[in-house]
Amino acid sequence: MIHFTHFTQFITITNLNWLPTLQNNYHKEIIIEGLSNRVNKKKVTIYGFVLMPNHMHLIWQLHDNIIKEHFQRDFLKFTARSILQFMRMHEDPLLESLKVSAPDRQYQVWERNSLSIDIYSEKILLQKLNYIHNNPVHPKWRLSDFPENYKYSSASFYETGISEFDWLSHFRG
């Protein structure tokens, strides 16, 4: 792993009320765009991810001089606005379920207070990678027969060494 002052983190971000907002592949592509943009701007290194219908898991490491709270806020704000815009343009029936009575917004895509934990060892990192890569094949989801066949995950990268996500980094460098 590249050495930064921030620890590598495992983060879970859930959709508001666990709604299947990310069931739509266009919405997943917005997440991919947001991650790619932040990697290209040298704000974060992404070691692993999976995008599920109602949540996502990431293993990332923020670069030096990046404030965690600001980074997460900006990432979630960008993706939420983009997803909401796409939903409005396509008259997505799920949009009404995202309505909230908050003073600062009409709609909300993400639950507040995403869960993130620092990863202190390679053993824990491998445990988290295995967990996220197996999410799509879990009997609850059955999104794929094999982890490496699920498009919106880093599993194929770790299985084959090849990835369509040029912003993804192997945790061993």
CATH-derived topology: Alpha-Beta Plaits
**The named CATH superfamily:** Transposase IS200-like
Order of helices and strands: EHEEHEEEHH
CATH architecture: 2-Layer Sandwich
Poorly predicted runs are: none
Cα separation of the termini: 5 Å
The top level CATH class name: Alpha Beta
Count of spatially separate domains = 1
Roughly how many Å is the radius of gyration? 16 Å
Summarize the structure in short.
The protein has helices spanning 25-40, 68-89, 122-134, 155-160, and strands at residues 8-14, 44-51, 55-62, 99-102, 105-107, 115-119. It is α+β, with helices and mostly antiparallel strands.
Give an overview in words.
Strands 2-3-1-6 form a four-stranded antiparallel β-sheet, sandwiched between helices. It starts with 7 loop residues before the first strand and ends in a 13-residue tail after the last helix. It is globular, with a radius of gyration of 16 Å. The protein is built from four helices and six strands; from the N terminus they run βαββαβββαα. The protein has 173 residues and is an alpha+beta fold. The longest helix has 22 residues, at 68-89. β2 (44-51) and β3 (55-62) form a beta hairpin. It has one domain: Transposase IS200-like (Alpha-Beta Plaits, 2-Layer Sandwich), CATH 3.30.70.
